[in-house]
Write a structure and sequence with these properties.
By secondary structure, the chain is α/β, with parallel strands linked by helices. 29% of the residues lie in helices and 17% in strands. The protein has 9 helices and 12 strands. Helix 6 crosses helix 9. The longest helix is centred in the C-terminal third of the chain and has 20 residues. The protein is globular.
């Protein structure tokens, strides 16, 4: 297993106050990079509500064109910490969007289309908008730039039906990736069932679980996320990114019985750069000052155990985005 132990040190990191210093909830750089206006713009609001979500989307200033896909996670059970329909409904209606998902590769309540549709109704998403299971009618291959592990990205065929994507992710921990944000939502989340196995196995299988190459898995996720990003950037298409930092368990929304969140809710962040956005959220987690009843330590430990920050390093190295950013506080 090519897994390296990653020890994140806030002592040695350069803690550089962003352009919005003064708000206790605004991220600071803990990467050694200068959070200056030379980096990507990341918008921030502490208002975790349907209104706050619409406002941060509008702040990006990117108007959707054509058919709009809103990529979410439908959650493994009612106990999962996925974004709730009442939170996302106003945004989906604002853009006249279709909610999109793909089937899972690990069994459970969403492993096939029939079960997944039942879960979607049970979670209340059909009350918001139609939910398109993108691999319901098969899959297609889209090109990847980085072929170190995967030679293509295998995604739900219905991706072809959309001109614009809003990657609407719930930021939280993840048992395998360390954390899940927009990069995971765009790689594993947009992949078909076999495409998920292909990424998890670092390009070695589309039919069975192989998970003995942690860095290869993380690098494959970065390559797949870049493939989807590039797909929606070509031919006049576009894509934007939003992370909601609430209910941040160490466990993913794919866990039907997750550990309870130990860290209090922070806010919503958005950007056109997915790497900068996930980095800003990571910085909020690692710069968090623990108090009684509000600790980031379990989430930090989960991320470090899985060498989770490597996906950000690698995504930047292949040109998906950059880890420099500056915050605009709404």
């Amino acid at each position: 297993m090519r897994r390296r132990t990653f020890l994140f040190s806030l002592v040695s990191a350069a803690i550089l106050i962003s352009s919005c210093a003064g708000s206790k909830n605004v991220p600071q750089s803990s990467t050694g990079f200068d959070s200056s206006k030379d980096g990507a713009t990341v918008y921030f609001t502490s208002d975790i509500s349907s209104k706050g979500l619409v406002e941060i989307y509008k702040a990006l200033g990117v108007k959707p064109q054509g058919r709009v896909a809103v990529k979410i996670s439908t959650g493994e059970s009612s106990k999962s910490n996925h974004l709730r329909p009442e939170l996302i409904s106003d945004l989906v209606h604002e853009v006249n969007g279709t909610l999109v998902e793909c089937n899972t590769a690990y069994g459970g309540s969403r492993a096939n289309t029939a079960a997944h549709r039942k879960a979607i109704v049970e979670r209340g998403f059909e009350s918001v908008a139609h939910v398109d299971i993108m691999d319901e009618e098969g899959e297609i291959q889209i090109p990847v730039k980085d072929k170190s592990h995967i030679q293509h990205d295998i995604v739900g065929s219905h991706i072809q039906n959309y001109d614009f994507m809003i990657n609407l992710a719930h930021f939280k921990g993840h048992a395998m990736g360390g954390f899940g944000g927009v990069l995971k939502n765009q790689s594993i989340g947009v992949a078909s069932s076999s495409g998920k196995l292909y990424i998890h196995s670092a390009g070695r299988s589309t039919t069975k679980w192989i998970d003995d190459d942690q860095d290869g898995f993380l690098e494959s996720m970065a390559a797949a996320a870049q493939a989807v990003h590039d797909y929606f950037k070509k031919d006049g298409k576009n894509i934007i990114y939003i992370n909601v930092m609430n209910n941040m368990s160490v466990d993913c929304d794919c866990d039907g019985n997750p550990d309870k969140p130990r860290m209090k809710d922070i806010g919503i962040l958005a950007s056109t750069d997915p790497v900068a956005l996930d980095q800003a959220c990571i910085d909020l987690v690692f710069n968090h000052k623990d108090t009684e009843g509000d600790t980031a330590t379990p989430l930090q430990q989960r991320i470090n155990r899985q060498h989770g920050l490597h996906i950000l390093e690698y995504a930047e190295s292949i040109g998906l985005g950059g880890r420099k950013y500056h915050i605009v506080n709404l």
